[in-house]
Design a protein that fits this description.
This protein is α/β, with parallel strands linked by helices. It contains 10 helices and 9 strands.
């Protein structure tokens, strides 16, 4: 049984409610926080579809709700927004806060298999096996209509969780995702620490590798990615071109939009948030103008 979430704060927002929660996580073994935006259509317990947003390195459950500017259009569309934290907090593991790209704030949305990370760093199971059922029990969210998207490390998480759990997520998109973590410094550091040095075990958590193994298009309605061409991490860390090739080989429709002048931050994300929300709304069966 999922624990009942404690409401930490609530704020009126575009006719709906912005909420922040905490609960005792079974999968993580520690308290976890997440945020939810409920649009006005969720009033009186009416169930609405939802998007799960996975944030990037160093971020938390507040980052997206504060910076992305998503609530206004979500209110118009009737979409709930859900943002979990990016890692466990307070695990007490030696060195877990020493690096900004590994440990605290950098859970990479997978279940660690290596000591000392394995007992608490279980972000994949937390999201798929605990958070989604908790949302169904505690909030007016239609868990049969869930999409997933994210940014950077969270874009990696969105792509891989969507490919690994297509029964849970009906739509997927990403902003500047880490598309081939097995082939970039961020991913290799995280995978070695969380999963061990045997790279054969990394394939299951690498979006490009996963797509390369697909016998057919897992998302025939299309995947959307937006990438800024002024992103300082593009060449070394992100590799969208590799995912693009893998999608073409699998017959997976991919809309990869490259934008001159945009970097890796939330000014970029906010600039194209509307396109992502409407992408998901269409696939989740909501009416969309234009």
């Amino acid at each position: 049984m999922a624990s009942t979430p404690e409401l930490l704060s609530e704020h009126g927002c575009f006719g709906g409610l912005q909420r922040f929660y905490q609960h005792d996580s079974r999968e993580i073994g520690l308290p976890m926080r997440f945020s939810v935006y409920l649009p006005p259509q969720a009033a009186a317990g009416n169930k609405v579809p939802a998007l799960v947003y996975l944030a990037g390195l160093t971020c938390n459950e507040e980052t997206f709700m504060v910076k992305a500017g998503a609530q206004r259009l979500a209110a118009e569309l009737g979409l709930a927004l859900v943002a979990p934290d990016t890692s466990p907090r307070g695990a007490g593991i030696a060195g877990e806060a020493d690096s900004w790209d590994f440990g605290v704030g950098a859970g990479f949305y997978l279940d660690a298999t290596q000591t000392p990370w394995a007992p608490h760093y279980r972000m994949e199971s937390y999201i798929t096996a605990e958070l989604l059922p908790l949302l169904a029990d505690a909030l007016p969210i239609d868990t049969g209509r869930i999409g997933i998207f994210g940014h950077s490390m969270g874009g990696h998480g969105a792509l891989t969780l969507a490919l690994r759990h297509p029964d849970l997520f009906r739509s997927v998109s990403a902003f500047a995702p880490i598309c081939a973590p097995s082939q970039c410094p961020w991913g290799r550091k995280a995978f070695t620490g969380y999963l061990g040095s045997d790279e054969s075990g990394w394939v299951e958590h690498d979006a490009t590798a996963l797509m390369s193994l697909m016998p057919a298009a897992p998302y025939p309605g299309g995947i959307r990615i937006d990438q800024g061409l002024a992103d300082k991490f593009l060449a070394e860390q992100l590799h969208p071109e590799l995912f693009e090739v893998a999608c073409a080989r699998a017959g997976q429709p991919l809309a990869l939009h490259r934008h001159a002048g945009y970097d890796h931050g939330y000014y970029f994300i906010a600039s194209f948030m509307a396109e992502h929300l409407t992408h998901h709304a269409r696939q989740l069966g909501l009416p969309v103008n234009a």
